[in-house]
Amino acid sequence: MGLYCFGIDVGGTTVKCGLFLTDGTLVEKWEIPTRTENNGSEILPDVAKAIQSKIQERGLQKENIDGVGIGIPGPVNDKGEVPLAVNLHWGFKAVASELSFLTGLPAKAANDANIAALGESWKGAAEGAKNVVLVTLGTGVGGGIIVDGKIVCGHHGAGGEVGHANVNHEETFACNCGNHGCLEQYASATGIARVANEILEDSEENSILRSYTKINAKNVLDAYKEGDKLAIRTMEKVGDILGGALSIFSCVIDPETIVVGGGVSKAGQPLIDCIQKYYKKYAFPSCKDTPIVCASLGNDAGIYGAARMVIKE
Ligand code: ZN
């Protein structure tokens, strides 16, 4: 094992970069812009330049660096190849081999939500756990699955796409993916607002939520914490759907810890309690007591997980 490794997390507007010690200490983090012009052809060269200048600035020896891990917003196969990354304007790109060529260091690539799961299982809310399910509740629902300490990327790079698990066969609205009844349609920030609007329309009861012209997930969660009846009905429905989906993932993975991240998880323990109640109801008996916890690394989870991928055991 070397002394250092780099963890890179590529987003649509910025690239997060981290220099780590291989024991998991974050030495330094910084950001560079994501240049998506010319089909994103400069993104990997920019990352390589950022790494090279950090190596020079700190006088690091390449033989002391285990490598560079990189997270990409799109599917990534186990060879570190990306068939398509819309946000980066990329078609097919052999990310790991290109980055290795550009930096002269070993490189690995994985999906950004998957590396976040690995980060949380390394130094975050599931620290030390070898089997972890992460579900990220943001604008959409993403996630990552860690089995035996390794990312499950799957055959198409779609492993961990938990947001598109079908949870309602009767849904008539379409999901962003084109299917109907995906978890994302209920448990994302947009999903929670949509469920709340439907419940408000179906009821005559008073609610704090009626005072908003356009309801967002934070309004619903705040009202939920205040004990608002219709907000409670909304979150009970969301908790039922999400807890049920997690119980199915547990039948497949049997995780040691389930981690909930993303903007919606800022609602904290009341949200976790609501999910846990339904999870416990539906889970297979052996898995009923699996802890559900809030993610703890925030936006740094990706650079942690990216760095973890390249550490030589
Ligand atoms: Zn979907």
Short note summarizing the structure:
This protein is an alpha/beta fold.
Features:
313 residues; alpha/beta; Nucleotidyltransferase, domain 5; five-stranded mixed beta sheet; 10 helices; 10 strands; binds zinc ion
Please describe what this structure looks like.
With about 325 residues, this protein is α/β, with parallel strands linked by helices. The protein has 2 domains: about 5-120 and about 300-310, 2-Layer Sandwich (Nucleotidyltransferase, domain 5), CATH 3.30.420.40; about 130-295, ATPase, nucleotide binding domain (Nucleotidyltransferase, domain 5, 2-Layer Sandwich). It contains 10 helices and 10 strands. The strands form 2 sheets. It has a 5-stranded mixed β-sheet. Strands 8-7-6-9-10 form a 5-stranded mixed β-sheet, with helices on both faces. The longest helix is centred in the last third of the chain and has 25 residues, at about 230-255. It is elongated and about 65 Å long. The protein starts with a strand and ends with a helix. The mean pLDDT is about 95.
